[in-house]
Amino acid sequence: GPAAILFCTCLCLLAWLYSSLTYFISSNLDGNLITYICIFFYSHLSAGAGGWSPLISDKYQWLEVDLGERTKITAVATQGRYGSSDWLTSYLLMFSDTGHNWKQYRQEDSIGSFPGNSNADSVVQYKLQQAAIARFLRLIPLDWNPSGRIGLRLETYGCPYTSDVVSLNGGSSSLVYRLSPGPWRTSKEVVSLKFKTLRNSGMLLHAEGQQGVSLSLELERGKLQLLWIHLLGPAGRLTSLGSLLDDQHWHHVVLEQRNAHLNLTVDKNTERVQLPAEFSRWDIEQVSQKPDISKKNLRGCIENLLYNNVNLIELAQKRDRQVTGNVTFSCAEPVSIALTFPGPQSFLQLPGTTTSSLDGVSVGFQFRTWNRAGLLLTFGLLQKGGLSPAFSPGAALNDGQWHSVDLTCRRGRLTISYCLVTVFLLLLPHQGCPAEEHSEECRNPFETFQGCMRLLTVENQPVDPIMVQQRLLGNYSQLLIDMCGITDRCSPSRCEHGGRCSQSWTVFHCNCSDTGYSGATCHSSVYEQSCEAYKHNGNTSGHFYIDVDGSGPIKPQLVYCNMTEKNTWMVLPHNNTELTRVQPSPGVSQHSVHFDYSSQEEQLLAAISQSEHCEQELSYHCRKSRLLNTLEGSPFSWWLGGPGQGRVQTYWGGAHPGSQQCACGLQGDCVDLQHYCNCDADRLEWTEDSGLLTHKDTLPIRSLVLGDIQRPGSEAAYRVGPLRCHGDKNFWNAAFFDKETSYLHFPTFHGELSADISFLFKTTGSSGVFLENLGIKDFIRIELSSSTQVVFSFDVGNGPLEVRVESSVPLNDNRWHRVRAERNVKEASLRLDELPVATQEAPADGHFHLQLNSQLFIGGTASRQKGFRGCIRSLQLNGVTLDLEERAKITPGVQPGCPGHCSSYGSLCQNQGRCVERANGFQCDCSLSAHVGVFCQTEVSASFKSGTSVIYTFKEPYELSRNSSALPSSIYSDLTLRGENVSLSFRTNQSPALLLYVSSYYREYLALLINRHDKLEVRYKLDSSRDAEVLKSSVKSVANGQLHTVAIRRLTDSVSFDIFSFPESDDLDPDLARLASLGFTGCLSVVHFNAISPLKAALLHPDTSPVIITGPLVQSNCGSAASANPYAAENTHHLSGKKGGASSVQSINILCPAGVIAVVIFVVVTGLAITARFLYQRKETYRNQQVKGVQQENSQDFPFNNQADSQNVSSENPKEYII
């Protein structure tokens, strides 16, 4: 009774609420059935009877319910036909206000079908996510029991719906509401309404305020535009929202102003906009829907127009004095029956013309589509001579708007009248063919049309689609009649981060170019999140884009990554990082300067937050200009730092926040101990207060205010360095799961429409679940299914889907592997390391909201089965890093952090660099390498001039002068070499030249030289009683100014000799070539002998290394890297008569005369002319048979041999390497 209806909370059986419901059906198997189609209740299931079953069970059947008036429908329930095998397994729901222009109901804006029954007796109720307000409901069967027929008993649930409606004729109709004058105004103004129209343009609402400022809501091309208008200037568009709003269905609009912001909501989508400054003191004086002679006015209906909860239509009905207008309090709707061609098999066939009009045809229609092409119409003509078409060009027709076409063909002449249409589209589309026709005439060589049509006419007579639907006119297949099923998939756009959306009838596409993001919806960032991440990809110093929150809303920013130091620094510059002299302005007591950073506010704060350490240099150079005064006094100068505009800070670089001190005050070494800053001593001499600001809460420096600058004699300068940060807390955040039953849990993951998950793992196990989150039916999971396979699986209501990536190498190798998974409304993707991405397309008409409600499990599952044993690092969900370490500290079986990175990143250390483990990451130790750099990848090169030398003493000898007798071999046992590994590169135009000379106390030597034939020779003499072994290279013309690399390897009596040549386009500088007449001129780079790098020590550590430098030594870049070796020669030679021989070393010196620097490759060059000169000048007592032997054996190449004396060997001489 009435009491029951009063408390049904809009879930009442509508059969209770309305005494008489009207039902319409497509066909009926039993004429007595309709009277009790919907008379069933849960309590009467066993007593239920009958049901509806059509004559033919196909997808063209339907059941329609007329509720008598517009009603709020909240649920439906279905049951099979009583005592039969007839029931539905899925169906569609349609709603309408008029019995025409049906609109399909969709859950989540995607799912169109509803699940039905599994038998004839059980009742399946489905609650609508969004209540439908309509008078008519139509159910269309999709699938049914294959062993039976379509069978249905139906009930609908809801409650009455009341509304106030007016009609607008697009001309003289108006409705004006004038607010009462008075001081009362609220900070929140809300206007809401519903409207429906068939026109795609017109004025919807106008709100006028003071100072001639107003807001306007206008429909333009089916979209709602929010405009602001000022009497003194042109109108401006604030935002645009909605699409296809001219579909003659109700659309809900809310306009809400909160101070300087305004929210526009159309249906379920909201845009927030910032109001112009003119609205800062704006008060609404009038809300209206009135004619405007300069604009089209709305032709349609408005319902429930509310201003701050005041119903303006109700006031108009009561003839309230505040409301004036000329409207009709009902909604007069024109009937327009549309046809939808949803797929390639859709067609409509109409009968041809009558006998009296065989000489021509006249056809007219309107269409709308998103597709670029499609065959609209075909017809046959009895041709009498040629056709002479007359037409004009049009515009783009796949914009979703209605376009009109009128075609007339008479007496061999084809005429097309159109509204924004081109003739080529008339020739492209097609309506398919009847199933029974397979003739040549019905073949379709064109793309099929997908879209809507309406207002069809043949011979100027309208075509009634309802007669077509009833099979009384023409023929059709897979056609939706009395509805236009067009959907705008780009409104709202599913493309993220500024991706540009385009669409066809069935799909949308995102153009992600120039956005910095990738994927089907431009969701995932293409950039790394920090300089630390770039370093571990093998990059070196340079400018990089970093995206601190990955797929989050913060845009990528360009920073400089400095990887030359132990820490990897991210450098964020501003507009003035140089030392700047203060220029006081007359009459101004303070000098203020503001710093603008290249990064945006949210980018700065996020970069600082995720860094382990940040710092910024702040220095003040002063001469009679005080800085902070005393602790008790007011500071003369201060700076602002931190978020936003910053907070006032009264301490200086190197001191603590709030101390009102400088670095010298903290250290107690100021020039005047009575003050805490050097500048506060107020002296006439220049001094400075400098230091680093390291408290992240006060960074970056936003502005600087300097006060004591106007006194006579005051001078000052300041410098604010760039913001520098190192360490990525997110990149190294890790946890170790030492048991398969251990796991971490976090709050539910919310990734309803877009979800991206990325992490690194390493393990020795063959399987395990990395991550799992469950819902009632939905779930998401990533697991290691085998030692070579990672699986990403999920269910959003369409059934489980899986994406798999197979690796060719085992993944349980205890090395870091990177996993990146993404799921959006278009597809799911999975990427493992640098393997190709695997993808899985989402269903075209399926669920796309991921609905989870359990906790998120990391390293395990809710059932504690298939747990993961190993390390997980840098786990990020939608750009947000989960703090695994903090949660691991309080979780048994899980340890924070995960050491052991060299197994994964050690290969980045090049050129004999050694990987050293760090708590967070690794470091390349280049101490044993001839290279430098973050990965020991940069060669050390120098440019030598005539007179320059470098002598490196490997080991000081014993004081041999005390005992000049024969030395016992035990003294040199630790200096005995059984082999050498020498690598060097050179660039020279000089021939002949000595590149390398090594001699021992026992008159044994190694020499590398260029002979007069421009070829390389290696000479070994490991026994003073034998002649030297000579090994010649087949490579010609090595003194050609190009870069050559030489490698010599000896192990006992076996010598390997390689030379690589790198052709280049640029020859050696002619100025350097002219210097060849005075000794050697060439290029030295990356000198390496076993574990010693003498040139590197001389250039980078001259004060702490055992080197002697004579003449100018300038670091340069005379060499160049080469990844390929187009010319290579290798000789392996066994030294005759010397098996297993060794050379004794007393002390080793390297002499490096003249050269030019290389960039990347090893270069070591010298010449004997320079060598002999330096030996004579710097080692006057050095006269032995070793050098003389070389000179005699190669006297034709080296004619100057008068400096050597084989008999006078000083016991004070160490063994020398001469380069």
UniProtKB/TrEMBL annotation:
Belongs to the neurexin family. It comes from Amphilophus citrinellus (Midas cichlid). Residues 165-331, 733-898, 955-1118 form the Laminin G domain. Residues 1187-1219 are annotated as: Disordered. It is found in: Membrane. The keyword Repeat applies. Keywords: Disulfide bond, EGF-like domain, Membrane, Repeat, Signal, Transmembrane, Transmembrane helix. This is Contactin associated protein like 3.
